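REQUEST
  id: r-88c1
  op: predict_structure
  target: Peroxiredoxin
  payload:
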Amino acid sequence: MKKVLPILLSGSLLAVAANSNGQAKISQDSLMRYYNRLAKGSDAEKDLLSDKMYALTKSKKETDWLTAAQYFYQLKKGNLGDSIRTAAEKKFPVGIVVRNKSVETIYNENDPAKKEALYKAWEKKFPEGKLDNDRIVYDYARNAVGTAYAIADNLPKALEYANSIVSPFWKGQGWAGTAEHIAKKGHTAEAKVLLKKAIEDAWEFKTTRKNEEGARFAALGYPGYLSSYAQLLYNDKEYDSALVYLKRAEQAETPVRPQVNEMYAKVLLAKGDYPEVFARMSDIAAQGKLNSNNKPLLAAAYAKVRNDNKLESYIDSLKSGLDKKMQEEFAKQIIQEPAPGFTLKDVDGNTVSLSDYKGKTIVLDFWATWCGPCKASFPAMKKAMEKYKNDPNVKFLFVHTWEKEADAPASAKKFVTSNNYPFEVLMDLKDPATGVNKVVDSYKVQGIPTKFVIDGKGNIRFRFTGFSGGDDAAVAEVSAMITLANQQ
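RESPONSE
  id: r-88c1
  status: 200
  body:
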C-alpha cells in the first residue's frame, strides 16, 4: 500500500481531521489555503499547483473538476478552465455546471406561470441540497419567479415566493425587492410588512448576528431598507414617522448615501421646513453631488429661502472650493508605478498603443457594457472630457474589458454612439490562447469601473475604483488627479 505523507505548509502540517473510518484527511479549508498560497507563489509553486489541478480532473467528483477549473483560471489558463467546465457538462449531466446553466431558462422567461413551471421542473431535476449546500442558487431562482408574479400584480404568489427564501443572509434582499414591486401596484400595507422584516433582519446581522456567514452583505442593505420604508410613510403623508426611520438610516453609515439624503429632504420639504432642506441640500451641492433627482429639492428650498433667480450662481459659489479640496485629498493618494504598455484595436478596428500618447497625461477608464456603475459614471466622464477638450496634452481612453457579449466591439460601439459619448473605446478582448483579458490583468484590476491617471513619463500616478455618484464631484476628482500628475 502506498504510504501517504503529510503536505507541509510554511514549516507546519496542514490541519487534519479524522473521518468516519478514523483515517486522517486534510481539511477542505486548509487545502484551499494551500492552493491559494501556491497560486500566489513562485513559478515553481504555480507549476506544482498546475500538476495538482490536473490530478483533480481524474477524480470522480464534479466539485474536484470545478476546483481545478477555478485554479486554472487563476493561473491564467482560462481556456483550460473552460475546457474542464465543458467536459464536466458531459461527465455530470445532472451536476452543478449543468444545473447552473439550466437555470438561465427560468430567468429568460417573462410569463410568471411559465416561469414557475420551469422552476419546478428544474428543481425536480436538480433537487435542492443533493449536489451541494449552495442554497442561494435556488433562492435566486425562487426570487425570479416571485418578482415576475409581483410585476404581474399577483400578490399571493409574490408573497409566497418572497417568504420562501432560505439563505439567511439573503432574506432581507428578497423581501425588500418584492416590497418595491408590490408597492408600485398599490399594496402599501404588504410592502411595509416585508420592509419591516428586512429592516429587523439587517439590524440583527449588524449586531447580534454579525459573526454569521454573509453578515456583512446582509447588514449592507440596512440604510436602504430604512429609506424605502420611509418612502412608503412619505407616500401616506406620515412625515414624522418617516423622519424617525430616516434618522436611523442617517446614523447607520458615513457618508450618508444619496438615497437617504434625498428622501430626508423630500420629507422636510413636505413639512415646510425650507431652511433645513436648504442647508442640507446646500451641503450636498458643496460636495459636488447634485444630480437630476436632488437638484429640484434644492431649487424648491432656494425659492422659499432666497426668493431670487440666482440658483445657478449660488450652486457655483458652493462648488468654488471643490477643486482645491479634491487636490488636497488626492495629494495624499499619489503613487508612482510604471504603466504597463499595450496595443489594442478600437471599436472600428484601428490599432492604438499607449506609446502613441507618450508625453501626454492619460485617463484610462476600464469598463464594460454590462457594468451599471461604469455607465452611471459616463455623464461625468463626458463632462471631464469637455473640460479638457482644448488641452492637447490630456487624453481619455476607455478600455472595454471582461466582455460577455458575442460581438463585444459592436455592442460597445452601439452603446457609446447611441448615448452621444465622444469616447475613444479600445477593446481588451480575451486572449484566444489563455482566455485572459491581458490589459486589465496587467493593470491588476479587481473590479470595474477602475480608472488610472498616467503622467507624461508613463507612470501611474492615481488608481481609483467606483463612482462617487455626483457629476460635479467626479469631474473635480478627475481634474485634481490630472493637475497633480502634471505637477510631478
